[in-house]
Amino acid sequence: MENRTARLTILIDPRKKALFEEICSQQDLTPSQVVRRLIRQYIVDNANGRELPEWLTTAAQRGAEPR
After folding, report:
1. Model confidence pLDDT, tens digit, residues 32-46
2. 45-63 burial code (b ≥16 CB/10 A, e <16)
3. Which domain holds residue 35?
């Protein structure tokens, strides 16, 4: 299960941020949900043979948030 206490701070162009938030809203998703999904998929795609926990790979295959 993921620990949701870590914070990731990024700098992004304000125009991209506004567009990103608009698209997220249209899909009824929060920006945090989308970023977590992108990070999870990036880890799975670039693990380079590293063994990953089942909860991570299962959630990435579903494209969903792990419970």
Report:
1. 999 999 998 999 999
2. eeeeeeeeeeeeeebbeee
3. 28-67
